[in-house]
Specification:
The complex is a heterodimer of chains A (about 110) and B (about 120). By secondary structure, chain A is mainly beta. Helices cover about 0% and strands about 50% of the residues of chain A. In chain B, a hairpin with a 2-residue loop joins strand 7 and strand 8. The chains are: A mainly beta (about 110), B mainly beta (about 120). Chains A and B meet through strand 4 and strand 5 of A and strand 5, strand 9 and strand 10 of B.
């Protein structure tokens, strides 16, 4: 059973702080990793994709991947109240994730306090 | 770019009736579209993968005769929930990948309530 594990939270951080979201996965053959943001009652929105070990930065977001440890994380710098949402980690065994094999974690709820 | 729409956004129907949900990629062509279901406080669960011009591939435990999927063009896939029952009430979300690209983009979702 391929699994993606996330701490359900809630993770509470003050405005302006760094929020750190973590995800582990069981399938060592996983190739593609995605972070989605989902506001309550809404559908997921793609934030980041990462395919190789190391860091990938996009604005206030940094994704980190360590395939040896089967670990992927998302850092949000200068957190804003508008970042308050559930963050879903998704993993695919296929490069790109476009084949429908995305396996989602249950998500971590982030709350940014003003 | 990469906008996916769904219609309707919300539907209430009586038990035993059928409901059709449309998923459209507005500014790109999508060879593959995906249908997910999400129950409250649960993770997204893939129901089926829809390929343009061919039969959909259903995940284990998803009844293909109950959830009919048609992907007639590169921009449109439909999901029909046949003989809906209250336990089918859920948030149905489609996603699409632009041909040749890797990321999946989600539609806004359809909230189905079966009474």
């Amino acid at each position: 059973q391929k699994e993606v594990e996330q701490n359900s939270g809630p993770l509470s951080v003050p405005e302006g702080a760094i929020a750190s979201l973590n995800c582990t996965y069981s399938d060592r053959g996983s190739q593609s990793f995605f972070w989605y943001r989902q506001y309550s009652g809404k559908s997921p929105e793609l934030i980041m994709s990462i395919y190789s070990n190391g860091d990938k930065e996009d604005g206030r977001f940094t994704a980190q991947l360590n395939k040896a440890s089967q670990y992927v994380s998302l850092l949000i710098r200068d957190s804003q109240p508008s970042d308050s949402a559930t963050y879903l980690c998704a993993v695919s065994p296929l490069w790109g994730g476009s084949q429908g094999n995305l396996i989602f974690g249950k998500g971590t709820k982030l709350s940014v306090k003003p | 770019g990469a906008v996916v729409s769904q219609h309707p956004s919300r539907v209430i129907c009586k038990s035993g009736t059928s409901v059709k949900i449309e998923c459209r990629s507005l500014d790109f062509q999508a060879t593959t579209m995906f249908w997910y279901r999400q129950f409250p406080k649960q993770s997204l669960m893939l129901m089926a993968t829809s390929n343009e011009g061919s039969k959909a591939t259903y995940e284990q435990g998803v009844e293909k005769d109950k959830f009919l999927i048609n992907h007639a063009s590169l921009t449109l896939s439909t999901l029909t929930v046949t003989s809906a029952h209250p336990e089918d009430s859920s948030f149905y979300i489609c996603s699409a990948s632009e041909t040749g690209r890797h990321e999946q983009y989600f539609g806004p979702g359809t909230r189905l309530t079966v009474t």
